[in-house]
Amino acid sequence: MLELSNKLLSVYSLTSIGLIFAVYKIFKRIRTNSLAKSYFQNKTVLITGASGGLGKAIAEELYPLGAQLILCARNNEELNKVKSNLMLKSGKEPEILILDVGSKLDVIRPKLDEVINKFKRVDILINNAGVSFRGESFTAPDEVYEKIMNINYYGAVRLTNYFVNKMIQDNNERSKAEQKRRQYSIVNIGSVQSYLGLPYRSVYCSSKHALLAHADALRGELFHHKNIDVINVQPGYINTNVSINALRSDGAKNNTNDDDHRLGFSPNYVAQVVIRSIINRDQEVIVAILLHRVAIWLRFFFPRTAAWVVQKRAQKLYGKNFND
Ligand SMILES: NC(=O)c1ccc[n+]([C@@H]2O[C@H](COP(=O)([O-])OP(=O)(O)OC[C@H]3O[C@@H](n4cnc5c(N)ncnc54)[C@H](OP(=O)(O)O)[C@@H]3O)[C@@H](O)[C@H]2O)c1
Ligand SMILES: *[C@@H]1O[C@H](CO)[C@@H](O)[C@H](O)[C@H]1NC(C)=O
Ligand SMILES: *[C@@H]1O[C@H](CO)[C@@H](O)[C@H](O)[C@H]1NC(C)=O
Ligand SMILES: *[C@@H]1O[C@H](CO)[C@@H](O)[C@H](O)[C@H]1NC(C)=O
Questions:
Q1: 32 with 97, same domain?
Q2: Ligand 2 touching residue 120 (CB < 6 A)
Q3: What's the predicted TM-score (pTM) here?
Q4: Integer-rounded Cα radius of gyration of the chain
Q5: Number of domains the chain is built from
Q6: Confidence at residue 320, expressed as pLDDT on a 0 to 100 scale
Q7: 39 an active-site residue?
Q8: Which tens digits make up the pLDDT trace of 164-212?
Q9: Are residues 202 and 258 in the same domain?
Q10: Could you tell me the CATH number of the domain that includes residue 130?
Q11: Which family does it belong to (predicted)?
């Protein structure tokens, strides 16, 4: 009898904790959504990789919230399409910035200086441009490693370093009271592969691991500028052209749309998560299905089991010719 009532008691308390948590989540969401209406009104947001996929979706979600957007990518035509589609609704005219984030700093710097001259500051930098990889790690040539690292890692780092300096300058010119109200954000679009080294994705995984480490170190160094947020958003599969645009070992595009991506999250859903992470000043947000979350846990707590899973996966994928 006592045992039964004990059991009932624990079921009861677990349900209550669950309910309290759910109510907290609902209230938090309501608060975030109401803040979103004014949060971006006077904010300038630079999005890299805005010509398609997730970057375009982030632009679509931010534009109606009143943000001044700066859309950055290499493809002028696609950027213009994104811009004119946005402008079917009312909002501030987006600026187009044609820039290969993999270029050297002496190419990038003058273009970013122009942005600062025109808009005075960038409040939010979203490092979203990225290229994936399909191939074997130990047969991939240096050039492919360099190309992908140069976009996914150095590209993000170059822009981050440039804008963090500008943010600090802008912040220092303000009174203490103003600083309290003002927020700046650096957002990195990572991946669940920021925590997992997956077979035949080595170059991509490494670039995302590196970016996460850089962000953590940077956040530490910003201890005297606590209103500059460093945010890592780590999505699982998203339904974009990423696998079509992925580079193979020979440096050519893979040109195949994986089922994983076709069945992934909608880019606009992930874009909304990104926006909420900025408002909520999150440091790290994983946007992934349970299986991928479990994989990340496994990697940390049971690394041998994780290694076994990775090998099984590699075995399954082997045989598909990554180099033809
Ligand atoms: N899709 C997924 O499953 C998934 C999952 C986790 C994380 N992510 C991450 O999400 C981000 C966006 O990827 P996506 O899925 O939207 O891929 P996508 O559809 O292939 O879009 C990639 C974007 O990056 C731009 N880009 C590529 N190289 C660039 C360069 N050198 N300089 C400037 N822009 C460049 C592309 O524009 P241009 O070609 O015009 O330059 C394009 O706008 C990436 O960081 C990716 O790693 C994606
Ligand atoms: C935006 O800036 C303008 C001009 O400085 C100001 O009047 C307005 O209140 C600001 N809006 C918000 C939502 O901060
Ligand atoms: C994928 O690429 C095609 C062709 O360039 C384009 O029409 C489509 O909008 C892209 N999809 C996304 C989600 O960006
Ligand atoms: C692209 O990569 C997939 C594995 O993810 C592979 O099955 C496919 O053959 C590759 N496509 C090309 C054109 O090499």
A1: no
A2: no
A3: 0.94
A4: 21
A5: 2
A6: 64
A7: no
A8: 999 999 999 999 999 999 999 999 999 999 999 999 999 999 999 999 9
A9: yes
A10: 3.40.50.720
A11: Belongs to the short-chain dehydrogenases/reductases (SDR) family.
